[in-house]
């Protein structure tokens, strides 16, 4: 394959010339520079060398003997190395040049853009100007790479990374290789693209994909709600004008929880002897 047809791919080339700053490699028609900073090898003339071809910041084709896992058509996880508003996010594929996922391929809302350290499942694409860009894995690719869950996986705790976001929910690729969906009702906040999240499997569908909840299990949620009520009581010196007959909208506005959840948590605290109610108020019970 010729050099100009192999950008973003791995190719075998022959060492044509050696210079102070590196080597010129050839396919018999074109030459490309392998800079000395891009190889640890001492190459002899007319020997064959395996390289990855990319375009530098000036748009010139360049070579490196560092072979990345991610090439055109080959998918893998890559870490976000930088985020630039108006441009996009840059990802580290293991070579000296980071690759760009353009703003046009990112979510419309920047609040769910990836952050540095997040992981994306990607491949590379080459445009008409021979520039290399990142391409996110689509649903058909995730379908191809994923494994099927079984009913035995129901209610298991899982973790994974968000590979697609939307208002209705988020799609996750788990460490086990499961493809999952997180409905908006099963998350407290919308996770970022590329964010690592932890949850549990709440349904296994016939096609082996899963539904996931990021909400805490009932007992965990009860603990968190009780802690929130105690925290607010402590902030108010042990008394608050809320009790189990308060209006649902007042409870939602103040505690960000449903009245049912509020009553469950309050009931637990009273049963444990930590609080008591009196004339529309709730108080922390002082030690005798």
Automatic annotation (TrEMBL):
InterPro entries in the record: CvfB_fam, CvfB_S1_2nd, CvfB_S1_3rd, CvfB_S1_st, CvfB_WH, NA-bd_OB-fold, S1_domain, WH-like_DNA-bd_sf
Pfam families: CvfB_1st, CvfB_2nd, S1_2, WHD_CvfB
Top-rank taxon, per record: Bacteria
Cleaved signal peptide residues: none
Protein name: S1-like domain-containing RNA-binding protein
Domain S1 motif positions: 6-66, 153-215
Family statement: Belongs to the CvfB family.
């Amino acid at each position: 394959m010729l050099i100009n047809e192999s950008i973003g791919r791995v190719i075998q080339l022959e060492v044509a010339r050696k210079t102070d700053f590196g080597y010129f490699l050839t396919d018999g028609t074109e030459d490309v520079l392998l800079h000395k900073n891009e190889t640890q090898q001492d190459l002899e003339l007319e020997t064959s060398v395996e390289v990855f071809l990319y375009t530098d910041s000036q748009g010139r084709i360049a070579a490196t003997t560092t072979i990345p896992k991610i090439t055109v058509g080959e998918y893998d996880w890559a870490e976000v190395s930088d985020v630039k508003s108006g441009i996009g996010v840059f990802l580290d594929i293991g070579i000296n040049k980071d690759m760009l996922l353009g703003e046009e391929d990112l979510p419309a809302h920047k609040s769910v853009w990836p952050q540095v350290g997040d992981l994306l499942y990607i491949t590379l694409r080459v445009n008409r100007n021979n520039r290399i860009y990142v391409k996110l894995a689509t649903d058909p690719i995730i379908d191809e790479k994923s494994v099927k869950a079984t009913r035995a996986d129901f209610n298991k705790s899982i973790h994974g990374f968000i590979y697609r976001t939307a208002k209705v929910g988020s799609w996750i690729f788990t460490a086990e290789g499961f493809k999952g969906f997180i409905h908006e009702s099963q998350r407290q906040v919308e996770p970022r693209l590329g964010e690592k999240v932890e949850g549990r499997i709440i349904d296994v569908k016939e096609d082996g994909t899963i539904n996931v909840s990021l909400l805490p299990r009932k007992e965990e949620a009860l603990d968190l709600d009780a802690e929130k009520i105690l925290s607010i009581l402590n902030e108010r010196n042990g008394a608050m004008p809320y009790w189990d007959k308060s209006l649902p909208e007042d409870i939602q506005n103040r505690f960000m929880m449903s009245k049912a959840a509020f009553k469950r948590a309050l009931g637990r605290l009273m049963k444990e002897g930590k609080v008591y109610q009196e004339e529309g108020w709730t108080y922390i019970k002082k030690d005798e």
